[in-house]
Amino acid sequence: MKVVKELSACGGKLIKLSHDSISTKTRMNVNVYLPKQYYAQDFPRDRRIPTVVYLSGLTCTPDNASEKAFWQFQADKYGFAMVFPDTSPRGDKVANDPEGSWDFGQGAGFYVNATQDPYAPHYQMYDYVHKELPQTLDAHFNGNGVAKLDFQDDVAITGHSMGGFGAICGYLKGYAERKYKSCSAFAPIVNPSNVPWGQKAFGGYLGDERTQWQAYDPCALIKNVKHVNDDKILIHVGDADPFLEEHLKPELLLEAVKATSWEDHVQVKKVHGFDHSYYFVSTFVPEHAEFHAKNLGLI
Ligand SMILES: N[C@@H](CCC(=O)N[C@@H](CS)C(=O)NCC(=O)O)C(=O)O
Q: A GO molecular function for this record (predicted)?
């Protein structure tokens, strides 16, 4: 891993990193925010700082949320680090949307492992985000014998739109092993198999066989994952979101959990007047931060 830039932000630092990924076979960029606790001289040696992973939406790089979601203030308040991965592999040799649209291909990897050519060689974003990246960050930041940051055990996941889908999908797929201790989402695509953005992405990356799509679709996954403890998935969506009716459809997740162990454990807060932008995301980041801080045992 190479540090590209270190920027002072709030009480800590935003570290811009890049590395050669084994999963995507490309160079990947990732931003990490280290909160003020990381730099505090009196931070207890026997404690590790947990992380919140934020998966971004269509067209984003690691910079969109780093610059516009204002997670850094919350990370300092509660004492967690933030990880902002990229949304796809990139580069001249990486296949892109044949139509040149922004809802598929580079900037739109959908956090799945593609099985179809020409996408399969590089679009392995599920393995990248949920397996390779935590290990790589662990080796980079904790490789000096001082294990101060926790990228693999006490970890929460959240995301926006395509990234909200990626967060819920990763949370549910890793639920039995408690991979993530907490999950939330901003304006997520909850049922990709049944909406145009998801159908285009799953068709392209996973092929026409729709049974293959179920392995990533939150509305299918949640029916086969046994809910435990007081776990809850927190979702916000704006009622003025232009993508709400066609692509997001949060009510489909509420329908999917009816009569399952998750009934009453998925909370969708529809907020009046908010759209899909980072004005919406940043408004509700404090509530999501408090939710994750509680679930990570920080408060
Ligand atoms: N670029 C698209 C919009 C795509 C979009 O809204 N992307 C969301 C995630 S799904 C986003 O976060 N965009 C980047 C930003 O707002 O900074 C357009 O031209 O309409």
A: S-formylglutathione hydrolase activity
User: By C-alpha distance, which of 206, 155, 183, 157 is closest to 253?
Assistant: 183
Q: Report which residue type is found at 266.
A: V
How many separate helices (H) and strands (E) can be counted in the chain? 10, 9
- With a 6 A CB cut-off, is 277 part of the ligand 1 pocket? yes
CA distance 164 to 45: 34
Q: Is 276 in the pocket of ligand 1 (CB under 6 A)?
A: yes
Q: Which domain holds residue 111?
A: 2-295
CATH number for the domain spanning 57: value is: 3.40.50.1820
Q: Give residue-wise pLDDT tens across range 157-179.
A: 999 999 999 999 999 999 999 99
Mutate to test the pocket of ligand 1, among 55, 59, 87, 276 (most ligand atoms within 8 A of CB): 59
What is the CA(56)–ligand 1 centre distance, in A? 10
By most ligand atoms within 8 Å of CB, the mutation choice from 55, 56, 60, 162 for ligand 1 is 60
More confident residue, 70 or 147: 70
* Placement of tokens 């949060």 in the chain: 250
Q: Report the domain count for the chain.
A: 1
C-alpha dist (Å) from residue 215 to 173, 191, 222:
8, 12, 10
Q: How many CB atoms lie within 10 A of CB 229?
A: 8
Q: Is the pTM of this model over 0.90?
A: yes
The Cα 121–Cα 145 span in angstroms is 35
pLDDT at 145 over 80: no
Q: pLDDT band at 186, cuts 50/70/90? A: very high
Tokens of 232: 């809850």
